[in-house]
Inverse folding.
């Protein structure tokens, strides 16, 4: 669903996404909020869901750059701090989560979904002999 947030400073975008996703969750209750990646929408939807007691699953959880000047790194840290289940892309992501105190029972290694999608699209468009 498009929340039609538009542009603005980061705080405005975050607030508008949180308002829109909270309204959506109130209108159409859910048993799980699945968020992907490290964009502002990922963090904002995770916050809104947790405030409504909707568990959060994060695809691409545990990724870290260590560069706190990147807005994406802040999004990752906040999202992972309130996530219930993590779908990870690498052993590195798993190690980051373990170091943060996340138990292995909450971590599911799924591989790199972006690369998997790319390869699936390449293979599906490759002519067969």
């Amino acid at each position: 669903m498009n929340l039609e947030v538009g542009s603005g400073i980061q705080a405005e975008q975050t607030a508008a996404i949180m308002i829109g996703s909270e309204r959506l969750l109130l209108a159409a209750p859910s048993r799980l909020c699945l968020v992907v990646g490290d964009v502002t929408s990922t963090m904002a939807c995770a916050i809104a869901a947790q405030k409504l007691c909707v568990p959060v699953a994060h695809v691409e959880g545990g990724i870290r750059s260590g560069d706190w000047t990147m807005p994406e790194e802040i999004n990752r840290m906040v999202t992972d701090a309130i996530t219930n289940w993590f779908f990870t892309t690498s052993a590195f992501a798993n190690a980051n989560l373990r170091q943060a105190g996340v138990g292995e029972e909450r971590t599911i290694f799924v591989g790199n979904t972006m690369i998997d999608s790319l390869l699936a699209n390449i293979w599906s468009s490759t002519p067969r002999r």
